[in-house]
Amino acid sequence: MIGQAGELAPRLEMATGYEGVAWYVIQIHCRTETRVEMALERKGLEVFLPRIIVPRMRRGRKIFLQSPLFQGYLFVHTHLDAKAFHQIIKVDGVVSLLGNGSPSPVPVEQIESIRTIVAGDRPYYPWRHLGKGKKVRVIEGPLAGAVGNLVARKEKKRRLVVAVELFQRSVAVELDDEAVERW
C-alpha cells in the first residue's frame, strides 16, 4: 500500500502539472454540500463553499435560506498528493475531483473574484455559463479587484459574470458602467 501511494503522488503532480498548493473543484452529490464541507474541514482541509440567500415558502410563510451558489460543487485548497487525494475522495458524498482526465487546479483569480463578489454588498446570483466575452476588472467599490466577463444588460448598468471554466458555472453581479475597466 505505501509503495502504491508513493507512486501515485508523482503521477498526480505530473498529471495536474502543478506541484504546489492550489484550489480544486470537487463534484459532490446534490444536497450534501454542507455535510461534505464539514467533513473536509474536520480533516484539516481549507474548503470554500460560496452560498446565496434564497427565498423559500414554508407552511405558507416566506423564509430566507442559505443555499450553495454552485449546487453539487465546492472548492478545496490543498497540495494534491496521494494522501490528500484519498482523504478527499473517500468522504461520503464526494463524486470526483474535476479535471480533464486528472484533477485540474482552478486559477486563484477566479476563486478570489468569487470570494469578493460573495463578500460584497451587491446582490449576486447564479448565471448560465458563458462563452468567451470581454474580460474586465472592477476598479471601484467593495468588489474592486474582481475579474470576469462583462455582459450588457441595461443602460448605464453592466452585469459582471465570473465564470469558473473548469466546471462551467458562473456567478453574476450588477455594476455601474464606470465601475469596470478592460482587463
Poorly predicted sequence stretches spanning 5 or more consecutive residues: 1-11
- Tell me the radius of gyration: 18 Å
Major sheet strand order: 8-12-11-10-9-13
Helix percent band: 10-25%
Average residue pLDDT: 83
The gist of it:
This protein is an alpha+beta fold and 183 residues long. The protein has helices at residues 2-16, 33-42, 82-89, 108-119, and strands at residues 21-28, 46-48, 51-58, 61-68, 73-79, 94-97, 105-106, 124-127, 134-138, 147-152, 157-164, 169-176, 180-182. The protein has two domains: 2-106, NusG, N-terminal domain (Alpha-Beta Plaits, 2-Layer Sandwich); 109-182, Roll (SH3 type barrels).
Q: What does this protein look like?
A:
It contains four helices and 13 strands. It has two domains: 2-106, NusG, N-terminal domain (Alpha-Beta Plaits), CATH 3.30.70; 109-182, Roll (SH3 type barrels), CATH 2.30.30. Helix content is 25%, strand content 40%. The chain is of the alpha+beta class and 183 residues long. The N and C termini lie far apart (48 Å). It has a six-stranded antiparallel sheet, with helices on one face. Strands 1, 2, 5, 6 and 7 form a five-stranded antiparallel sheet that branches. A two-stranded antiparallel sheet has the order 3-4.
